[in-house]
Write a structure and sequence with these properties.
Elements lengths: L12 H18 L7 H13 L4 H13 L5 H10 L4 H8 L10 H16 L1
Helix pairs in contact: 1-2, 1-3, 3-4, 3-6
């Protein structure tokens, strides 16, 4: 695998998991004996352990938070990665966010309901 940077963007852990699965599949087609590098293997193991959703659900959640609630992308990604269950947890993630500081407890509860709805659909 070349060490060149193709693209740079912020992604959630479930999205990294999908990327790493594609890398692993691609590398096994090229050279099944060589496989992934040590760093890639560590990353692959990490994302498999800590991904709390599939990538499609993660993208839906991120899009909802950014488009409907105007939450900054980095905070939306943190919400996807951490998967808060309570208003307190969600407020902790958003406490430094410009938008998040202005949200009331009722608005945060509504966000939690919407997240749960996406995860169960």
């Amino acid at each position: 695998m070349s060490g060149r940077k193709k693209d740079e963007r912020a992604v959630s852990i479930p999205e990294v998991k999908e990327i790493m699965e594609n890398v692993k599949k691609h590398l096994s087609k090229i050279d099944s004996e060589e496989g992934m590098s040590h760093f890639q293997e560590i990353t692959y193991n990490y994302v498999n352990k800590f991904a709390k959703h599939d990538s499609k659900t993660a993208i839906k959640i991120r899009k909802l938070l950014i488009d409907k609630h105007s939450i900054e992308e980095l905070y939306a990604i943190n919400i996807v990665n951490i998967d808060p269950k309570t208003i307190f947890e969600l407020r902790l993630i958003l406490e430094k966010s410009f938008t998040g500081r202005t949200l009331t407890n009722d608005q945060l509860q509504e966000i939690l309901y919407q997240l749960e709805d996406i995860k169960t659909s």
